[in-house]
Amino acid sequence: MNLRYRVALSQAERVELTALLNGGKHAARKLKRAQILLAADAGASDDEIARSISVGGSTVYRIKRRFVIGNLEAALSEEPRPGAQRKLSGKEEALLVATACSKPPAGRARWTLELLAGEIVKLTEHAGLSRETVRRRLAENELKPWRKDMWCIPQVDGNYVARMEDVLDLYAEAPDPKHPVVCFDESPTQLIGEVRQPIPAAPGQLERFDCEYRRNGTVNLFVFLDAHRPWRKVKVTDQRTARDFAHCMRELVDVHYPKASSIRVVLDNLSTHSPGALYEAFPAPEAHRLLSRLEFHYTPKHASWLNMVEIEIGVLRGQCLDRRIGERSRLVAEIEAWERQRNQAGARITWMFTTQHARTKLARTYPDPNKES
Q1: Could you tell me if 185 and 221 are in contact, meaning their C-beta atoms sit under 8 angstroms apart?
Q2: Residues of 244-270 as b/e, b for ≥16 C-beta within 10 angstroms?
Q3: Neighbour count for residue 372 (Cβ, 10 Å)
Q4: How far apart are CA 371 and CA 348, in angstroms?
Q5: For residues 195-214, average pLDDT
Q6: According to the model, what pLDDT value does residue 1 have?
Q7: CA distance 184 to 232
Q8: Mean per-residue pLDDT for 339-359?
Q9: Which of 78, 162, 171, 284 is deepest in the core (most CB within 10 A)?
Q10: Using an 8 Å Cβ cutoff, are 216 and 170 in contact?
C-alpha cells in the first residue's frame, strides 16, 4: 500500500461520491475516479483498486495524489492535456475557411475533405494535410461545404406578411361547420409499370424487382384537406387546366360541403387558381353562385410550406405512392383505399406554427415601418 498519499474522506465527501455513483449521467472516467477514492478511503491497496476497477496502478496513484495535494474537485476533474501543436496556423485556418466557402474546382459539384486538404497543401508550405485535420477545423467554424440548405422565403415584404398571417389566423380558428377551412393543391404523378413481374419476399429473401420499368404517362392529383377535421379527398384527373380546377371547386361546394355558408379555400398562386377559371368553365350565373360560397385565401409566393395540404401530399406519397403503379385504374383504387383508411382513422395534421410564432421567428425579416425607404 502506498502510504505517501493516504485518502481520508470526510462524511460529506463520502455522501457526495456515493450520490455521484448512484444517480445522473456522468463521464465514465469521472465515475472511476469516484470509485478509486471510495476504495482508497476504505483501506484497499493500490493493486486491489486497480484490479477491481480495471485501471492502471499509475491512475490510482495519480487520483490519490490529486486528492491529497488538492481537494475532491481536483481529483474528480480532468487534468489539462497539452496535446499536439495545431497543424494549421490562424492564417492558414482562415484560408481553409475562405476556400471552403468558395466555388469548387471545375468538374466538381462541391468541396470534399480530400479536395480541401489538397488545395491547402498547394496554397501553403505543408507537405501534407489529413482529412481529419480539415474536418475538425471546419467543424470548429460550423462549416459543412458538402451540404446545401434550400430556403423557401426569398424576401418578406408587407404583402408576404399579410398573406401569411391571414392563412395562419384561419388555422387558429375554432372549427366551424358553416365556415370550413379547406386546403387545396395539386400534384402530378407518373404511371410507372413493370417490365417484368417482381419476385415476392420470402423468409431470408428480400422482395426483388427489375431495374427496368415502363412509363405509362402522367396523371394529376387534386387534393383537398380540411384544416379542422379528419377529412381529405383526392381526385385523379388527366389534366390540371383551369376547367379542371373549376370542376373541383364545384364538387367542393355541391358535393363535399353542401350545407356550408362559405368555404375558405387555402391555395397557392398558380394561374389556374382564380375566380376567373369558374367563369371560363360555367355560365355566368353558375359561376357566380359557386363563388358566392367560396372565399379564396392565397399563400404568399414561394410559401407552399404554409399550405397544410402539402404535408398531406407528402404522407400520401410516402404511405401509398412510394412504389410502381402503372395503370390509372389501379392508381385510383389504391388512392381511394388510402383515403378511406385515413379518414376512418381520424388522421389529422397537427399545425403548430402560429401567427405569434411567425412574428417571433421571422422578426428580423419582417418589414420595419420605422425604417426609411
Answers
A1: no
A2: bbbbbbbebbeebbeebeebbbbbbee
A3: 4
A4: 42
A5: 89
A6: 45
A7: 10
A8: 94
A9: 171
A10: no
Q: Does residue 299 register a pLDDT over 60?
A: yes
Distance CA 150, CA 137 (A): 25
Give yes or no for residue 147 having a pLDDT over 90.
no
User: Pick the residue with more confidence: 56 or 231?
Assistant: 231
Bridging pattern class, strands 232-237 and 263-267:
unpaired
Instruction: Answer whether residue 329 shows pLDDT above 90.
Output: yes
CA 269/CA 276 separation, integer angstroms: 13
pLDDT of residue 91: 92
Cell of 135: 474536418
Q: H-type helices in the chain, by residue range?
A: 11-22, 28-41, 46-53, 57-69, 72-76, 90-100, 113-123, 131-140, 158-172, 242-251, 275-281, 284-291, 309-319, 328-344, 355-361
> Nearest Cα to 335, choosing from 353, 355, 349, 317?
317
Question: Rounded to whole angstroms, how far apart are CA atoms 13 and 307?
Answer: 59
CB contact burial 147-178 (16+ within 10 A = b; e otherwise): eeeeeeeeebeeebbebbebbbebbeeeeeee
Which DSSP string corresponds to 289-328?
HHHTTEEEEEPPTT-GGG-THHHHHHHHHHHTSSS----H
List CB contacts of 48: < 8 A, sequence separation 6 or more: 39
- Please state the rounded mean pLDDT for residues 178-193: 96
Residue showing cell 468558395: 102
